[in-house]
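Postdoc handover notes: sequence design on the structure in folder B. Input tokens:
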């Protein structure tokens, strides 16, 4: 599973400004903040936000095994908003009384709002290797999401827009994450290349989302 990645110029960081809220019945992704596991999909039952969006209470419906797994834990909840974007909330998940398939999510601060359909991203510097043919290019990420990355590289002319590269992303304390990527932008002046991930597994997507959300939470 992959997310959209902008093919244009540099994307502004995800912000936390107030905007349209999610619609009842829309999809919600729930990712535990502890451990690595694929996100669980839920459906939004209700949404209540305080003025300014500083506190949010939401109810989501998912299968009973999911509620039992997440009840009592802290999750990153990603909501789809009415303007086609996303917002991410760090929330405590608690079982709803009398509803075994409903969790109540309570969050005290919004981590990020993304006004486009792109995955939420963070400015993260991670070592990465991009392989074109038999040539390996060392690079450093400038921003990162589960949809793709923008990297600084010595020779951007080696990357043709539309070309496919092998991406080997170094993760602190973990084995490198390896995936295929498509070059969507190559900036010869700034020495930057933007890559859209093509074939992330659910597990790898969860790893990247957790890394991004953790970085956003720490920076806030």
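Designed sequence:
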């Amino acid at each position: 599973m992959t997310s959209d990645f902008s093919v244009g110029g540099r994307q502004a960081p995800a912000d936390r400004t107030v905007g349209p809220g999610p619609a009842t019945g829309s999809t919600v992704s729930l990712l535990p903040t502890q451990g690595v596991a694929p996100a669980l999909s839920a459906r939004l039952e209700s949404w209540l936000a305080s003025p300014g969006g500083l506190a949010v209470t939401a109810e989501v419906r998912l299968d009973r095994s999911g509620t039992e797994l997440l009840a009592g834990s802290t999750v990153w909840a990603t909501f789809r908003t009415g303007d086609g974007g996303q917002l991410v909330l760090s929330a405590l998940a608690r079982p709803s009384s009398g509803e075994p398939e409903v969790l109540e999510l309570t969050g005290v601060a919004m981590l990020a709002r993304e006004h486009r359909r792109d995955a939420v991203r963070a400015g993260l510097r991670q070592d990465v290797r991009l392989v074109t043919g038999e040539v390996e290019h060392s690079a450093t990420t400038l921003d990162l999401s589960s949809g793709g990355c923008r990297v600084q590289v010595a020779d951007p002319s080696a990357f043709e827009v539309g070309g496919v590269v092998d991406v080997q992303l170094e993760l602190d304390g973990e084995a490198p994450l390896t995936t295929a990527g498509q070059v969507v932008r190559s900036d010869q002046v700034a020495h930057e290349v933007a890559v859209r991930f093509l074939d992330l597994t659910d597990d790898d997507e969860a790893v990247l989302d957790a890394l991004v959300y953790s970085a956003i939470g720490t920076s806030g």
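Context for whoever picks this up: Residues 6-17 have pLDDT under 50 and may be disordered. Don't rerun without checking with the PI first.
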